[in-house]
Structure formats: structure tokens, C-alpha cells
Amino acid sequence: MSDGMKRRDFLKVLGAGGAGVATVGCSTGHVEKLIPYVVHPEEIVPGVPTYYASTCRECPAGCGIHVETHEGRVTKVEGNPDHPVSRGNTCARGQASVQGLYHPDRYRGPQIVETDVGGAPRDVSWSVAEQEVARQIRAAPRGSVVFLTGNYAGTMDRLVDEFVAGVGGRRVRYAPLEDTPRDLDFADADVLVSFGADFLETWGSPVDYAWQFSQMHAYKRGGTRGTFVWVGPHRPLTGLNADLWLETKPGTEALIAQALAGSLSPAEAARQTGVNPQKLERALGFWNAGRRKVALGPGAAIQGRNAAALSAAIAGLNGRAAPAPADMRPMVQLVEDMRAGRVRVLLVDAENPAYSLPGGVKFAEALRRVPVRVSFSSFPDDTSRLANFILPQSHFLERWDDYTPRPGVFDLVQPAMRPVFNTKAVGDVLLSMASDLGIALTGGGATAARGWDEYLRNAWTARAGGAAWRDALKNGG
User: Fold this and answer.
1) Cβ–Cβ under 8 Å, residues 151 and 128
2) Digit-coded pLDDT (tens) for 205-255
């Protein structure tokens, strides 16, 4: 503003509205674009918020949310009080989702990297990007196309399976954050023992579990309340809320579970774990006196060589069969196939495997050997930086989707505003490429012209009837 601002320009900017002044700075060349509506939609009144029921997709928990908007822009997210998971609450990640929506580091649109890894990306239109990827898929030998995804747990599952089958490829699932239970019930427990499961922060379904913990740990009639015991070598936020901490040597937590089950003497368990014998006796007293007792874990903090034994011991305390360990063999096989040149096209819509996989797997090194690397990431990350096709998907507050956070709960994700940048839902991209490839996708009878939202609507109608779709739009699930 070294050359100053004329009075006429100042009044023009001021009249456009204070909220827009920060975005326009000292330039007045496009002031007319600051006016949000000439004729605004009937359901929107300037200054009065409009709310949309949706589902948070910041983590696998799938909390129901109410999205507050002003003049067509998302401004706040809060929990849906009618939702069985969130019960009107949200976590820090849910609250921060609005920041991710407007984050300046997001990809602004599709890009193609003409040279090898590290080359400068070229902005292209969606039609050019989709047609070029479709051309590469068409030219790839049968069986050399792989789609690496997370656990969609919704209609996207069927769409991706149909797409992969249509191109003669295969699908590999990789979901490092989704291997924890999200349907535990301990709100009425007398004793709760957590083996490193940080359920108030990151483990399982933190919003739901925090509510259950508040019920379990609150004083009830008669002045009694549940007791919480934390087992592990250190104390995160969840451990700091415990009534008793059993500070174990790393890797010895399974011995505490065996002592609680009565298969190992308390003295021997205390000797091998390094836990104070008096504290262990107190924990045994709580456990044995409890009418309803629940053990949680193992958490990420105490995963290691003894994780399988600990998981089995915890399942025994709860009277359940031990869960099957996560099967990493498909990922290991994928890396081997990439390294051997058996993968021609790799499409990635998973949790940044180049970063989240152990370094010894050497995923990034193998990825460089794949000629066509497609990333659907919204943000630059270790995996997308190795891709030569960037097809950024829309934020969950901008797109249609559905999700099943736990058995019996079916959630709908609906857009609360138009996309901030030139992004698309992965479902729309797959439908467009399927049209270019001449693949018939049967789910809901949708076509590329009708789009992912119509595919989703038809799938819901076929599953539960039109009323289910309308109720989900109203209640978020």
C-alpha cells in the first residue's frame, strides 16, 4: 500500500463487507466478487447460521456432527447429540477439521509430474488427468494395476471392488489406525484396567470412550464409583486419570494380565515386571471384588514382540477369543511386487504408507520402481511427493460419502459447502475413469455423468429405502 489508497477505493472495499477486507488486502480490482449473494438461496439468511448433519472422518471413529455454516462457508463443527457414538461431543481432531478444510497447503487441483520423482508438477484439468490415468490403466498388462486403500467401511468398498475387477487388477488394504475396537461397552464397569490403551486420546473411539469413562468413573447412588487401573511403563493423558498406576518394565505387561487371571502368582509377577508388590495386591483386590470388570488393550505404546501374548491374555480376562493379528502379508507382497516390476499402475488412497510403514519395509524405494503412481491425497505427504499423478480428493466437509463406524450404525457424510479448491471425491474420479475405460459399474446403476452422490443415493435406497436416506440427512446416521 506504498502508493496509498484513494478515498473512493476505500469506501468501495468498506461497502463490500468487513469479512472480505482481509482477503482482498489493498487490491480493489475484484471487489465485486466479495459480495456473497445477489439473490441468496431461500434456506440461507445472511447473519443466521445454517446447520448440516454429517459424520466426522478425521479418524475411524465416525462421530456424528452438526456443521455450522454462514453464507455458504463452514465455520464450526460440534457433536450431534442424537448420534450413538458422539452423543453431542467431539475431540480435538474433529474441532480442527475446519482448519484442514481451509488449509493453504492443500492441493489446489489435479497435477501431472512429467519427469521422474522430484520433477515440477504441471496443473491440468480433471478431464485431462482422468483420461491420462485411464489411458495408462488401459495400456497396463492385466494384473499389474493395484489399488491401495484404507478400510472404507461403506459404499466406496463396492465401488472400488467393481472398478478393480473391471480393470483386471487387485486391491490391497492398509489401515494402520483402524486396528483398534470401536464397539466396547464399559460405561457400567466396576473395574477398568487398561494395558497401554490410550482411549481418551487416540485408541479406538476416543469420544465415545471418554463419555463411557465419565459414566464409569462418576459417583453413583450409595457413594460408589468404578475404579480405573493403568498398566504400562509411562502415563499419557489416559494414565494420568487412573486411580492406580502399575509401572511395568517394557514388554512385561502380559504378566500382569496373567496375575489378574490367577495363572501367575502376584509375587512372581511383581518380581518380573518391577511393579511395587503392594500396588499389585491393590489392583488384584479391585479386580477380584469387581462385579463387572473390563480389560482394554493392548495400546500402541506397548506394542512389540509380546503384543500377541498380551492380546491373548487381555481377551482371556474379558472371556473372549483372542483377536486375529493384523495381516501385513498383502502389504509385504505388494512391496515385493513393486520392487520386482510386477506393478505397472498403483493408485493410493491410504494413510501415507511411505511414512507410516516401518522403514525396513522400504516402501518408498519400491514405489519409485512403479511407472504410474497415482495419489488421491489432499495434502502433500511422503507418498504423494513420489507420485506422478496427483488427483486430490475433496475434504469430507465438501463431499458425499457413507460410513459404518461399528455394527448397526450407518452414517451419511454430506457436503456442507462447495469445494474450496478444484478437488473431487474419489468416487467421482473412479466413475469418470470407468466411463473412459468402458467399464460398467452396477452399484446403484450410476454413471459418470450422474456422479458419486447419485451412486451413493441409489445404493442407500436399495439397501434401506428412501426414508433411510432422508433420515440420515437429518440426523447424520
Assistant:
1) no
2) 999 999 999 999 999 888 889 999 999 999 999 999 999 999 999 989 999
Question: How much is the average pLDDT of 436-458?
Answer: 74
Closest alpha carbon to 439 in 83, 72, 159: 159
Torsion angles phi and psi, residue 67, rounded to 5: -105, 120
3-state secondary structure the chain: CCCCCCHHHHHHHHHCCHHHHHHHCCCCCCHHHHCCCCCCCCCCECCECEEEEEECCCCCCCCEEEEEEECCEEEEEEECCCCCCCCCCCCHHHHHHHHHHCCCCCCCCCEEECCCCCCCEEECCHHHHHHHHHHHHHHCCCCCEEEEECCCCCHHHHHHHHHHHHHCCEEEECCCCCCCCCCCCCCCCCEEEEECCCCCCCCCCHHHHHHHHHHHHCCCCCCCCCEEEEECCCCCHHHHCCCEEECCCCCCHHHHHHHHHCCCCHHHHHHHHCCCHHHHHHHHHHHHHCCCEEEECCCHHHCCCCHHHHHHHHHHHCCCCCCCCCCCHHHHHHHHHHHCCCCCEEEEECCCHHHHCCHHHCHHHHHCCCCEEEECCCCCCCCHHHCCEECCECCCCCCCEEEEEECCEEEEECCCCCCCCCCECHHHHHHHHHHHHCCCCCHHHCCCCCCHHHHHHHHHHHHHCHHHHHHHHHHCC
Query: Which cell goes with 278?
Result: 503392594
How many C-beta atoms lie closer than 10 Å to residue 94's C-beta?
22
Task: Compute the distance between CA of residue 60 and CA of residue 49 in angstroms, rounded to an integer.
Answer: 28
Say if pTM beats, i.e. exceeds, 0.70: yes
